[in-house]
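It would be a great kindness if you could assist me with a short task in structural biology. The matter concerns a single protein, recorded as an amino acid sequence and a row of backbone structure tokens. Could you please explain, in whatever detail you think fit, how the structure tokens follow from the sequence? Thank you for your consideration; the sequence and its tokens are set out here:
___
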Amino acid sequence: MSHGHTNKRSQWLAAIAAGAVMSGPAGAHGAQDGERAVSLGVEEMDGRVAIELIAHSPVAQALEYEIELIGASRSRHKGATSVAAGERHVLSTMKTNVSGTWCALVSVNEESGQSYTLSAGDCESD
């Protein structure tokens, strides 16, 4: 199909915009939803899913994160890093095979005190 690349990119962008379900209270100096330091990018194709944790903090700060990706297997990754203000970069990439449902969960704790969870996929059934 001639629009395959467009559809894949659309899925990726839709996952970043809508698939990153965010919850949790903002800290005392917490930012608005649009000012959170990280987002989750997702790409699905040919029985595989790839997720990227993308930093785009409006302020320079330290943060900690924990990613769990559940598909044909379960993978976890923890990290702590400092991010520069206004710079976009990928903090982590994870891939897995899927044969049905999958779920990605990311817990984020920002230096500002703001904590939230990003999710994508079918996390309700897990």
In short: The chain is about 15% helix and 50% strand. The mean pLDDT is 78. The chain has one domain: 4-121.
